[in-house]
Design brief:
It is built from six helices and no strands. The chain has about 140 residues and is mainly α. It starts with a helix and ends in a 24-residue tail after the last helix. About 5% of the residues have low confidence.
Length: about 140
């Protein structure tokens, strides 16, 4: 994930946020479903989100927010930890009851299902007739 993170913003600029997220989720889904090497899973994960504020988080925040960027980045960072607090115990229970393959199938299926939501992602606020939050209009 660390190696792919610096390239995520450039990929998003070149191909668009929607395509990069969808491709990344499909790569995660395929890699986990095939129980691929950690390098493949890590590379796709680095394109989806970045804890170090270098990829999608910063990229999207800079486009959509002119004010309160720090607060938004903090909320995004907290959402990653919150998701782990919620889903890791569920996955652990699934592994205990049904084995590790069931957790891999659940992760792969979830990532594949989320791809459909990328249809609703907009690149910039102007795509829906809005200015970035806090931008001076005039």
């Amino acid at each position: 994930m660390v190696l792919s993170g610096p390239f995520a913003a450039e990929l998003m600029n070149r191909f668009g946020v929607r395509r990069v997220i969808a491709g990344s989720l499909l790569l995660v889904s395929s890699a986990v479903a095939l129980v691929a090497a950690c390098v493949v899973v890590g590379s796709s994960g680095g394109l989806r989100h970045r804890d170090d504020r270098a990829g999608l988080g910063c990229h999207g925040v800079n486009r959509w927010f002119a004010a309160q960027r720090g607060v938004v980045m903090d909320v995004l960072t907290a959402s990653i930890a919150t998701g782990q607090l919620i889903f890791l115990p569920i996955l652990a229970a699934l592994v205990e009851r049904h084995g590790w393959r069931s957790a891999a199938v659940m992760i792969a299926g979830s990532a594949a299902a989320i791809v459909s939501f990328t249809l609703f992602i907009r690149e910039r606020p102007g795509d829906i007739g809005l200015a970035p939050y806090g931008a001076q209009t005039g």
